[in-house]
Design goal:
Radius of gyration: 18 Å
Number of strands: 8
Strand order of the largest sheet: 1-5-2-4-3
CATH class: Alpha Beta
CATH architecture: 3-Layer(aba) Sandwich
Number of helices: 14
Number of domains: 1
CATH superfamily: P-loop containing nucleotide triphosphate hydrolases
Helix content: 40-55%
Shape: globular
């Protein structure tokens, strides 16, 4: 059975894409699925969440292979995949590199750039080795994000309820539809908007959430679960772990679990 590929995406930064990807990986691995996270963002947020840092990637002997090495230089995706949890043999990461910020310029003259990611995964047989592959892409529609969406079966759109990302919703929908319309990946399914950093006590947040639910209820849809604004996510990040481990009884952790259960239902529909 081939891997299910999910690529959370929004054409801006700071809306919870890495947070979403990290907790999807932790949750699915804990359920016994073999999962691979691919960090395509030059900010290295997902890589850092799983214990990598810039010095690790630049000074290790031998050096780690990164998604830049795979996507731009054609290195082996299998060799780049690193097991990151000694207690869970199902969890692997291909880390990012700062050089990914130059990926568009360095691949500008290459044909069919959108297919680089899926070709790399197919050539190394990783689609048959993993149950789920989760991409974390930058907030722009360059070669990294477009190739991730071309490879994906599903995407979803994390949107910050305090307003950041609202202006990016339509341009993100246009980008996703472009991938489908150009028949690069006509079967890509958008699972909908996932509201993050929701402050239920503020009128502004309530108005923003109400607008999103009314405007996008039918297309692409909105997850019922909204992720509350909480410092536990930053704490989990600095502890290089998930909120499932660091704050198992917190209400924000319950919201993440609710989102994951809702996501599983959508994937099985």
């Amino acid at each position: 059975m081939r891997a299910t590929i999910i690529s959370p995406f929004l054409k801006t930064t700071g809306t919870g894409k890495s947070l979403t990807a990290a907790h999807m990986l932790h949750y699915l691995a804990a359920k016994g699925y073999k999962v691979l996270g691919i960090d395509g963002d030059a900010n290295l947020t997902l890589s850092s969440w799983f214990g990598f840092n810039r010095d690790d990637l630049e000074r290790s002997e031998p050096p780690y292979l990164t998604w830049y090495d795979v996507l731009v230089d054609g290195q082996s995706a299998r060799k780049a995949a690193v097991q990151v949890d000694e207690d869970n043999p199902n969890l692997f990461i291909i880390p990012a590199a700062i050089a990914l910020s130059n990926a568009d310029a360095e691949t500008a003259s290459k044909a069919s750039r959108e297919f680089f990611a899926i070709e790399a995964l197919e050539e190394d047989g990783l689609l048959d080795d993993f149950d789920y592959i989760i991409f974390d892409s930058p907030g722009n529609f360059g070669v990294v994000a477009s190739s991730a969406l071309t490879a994906a079966n599903y995407t979803l759109m994390p949107v910050n309820a305090v307003g950041k990302g609202m202006e990016a919703i339509q341009s993100t929908l246009d980008a996703i539809n472009q991938i489908k319309r150009k028949r690069v990946n006509p079967n890509l399914k958008n699972l909908g908007l996932f509201i993050t950093r929701h402050r239920s006590t503020t009128n502004v947040d309530a108005a923003v959430v109400k607008f999103m639910r009314e405007q996008y209820e039918d297309d692409p849809g909105v997850f019922d679960t909204a992720l509350p604004d909480s410092t536990i996510f930053e704490q989990a990040y600095f502890q290089r772990n998930s909120v499932f481990a660091t704050h198992p009884k917190h209400k924000a952790t319950a919201a993440v679990l609710s989102f994951m259960e809702e996501l599983e239902e959508k994937l099985q529909a």
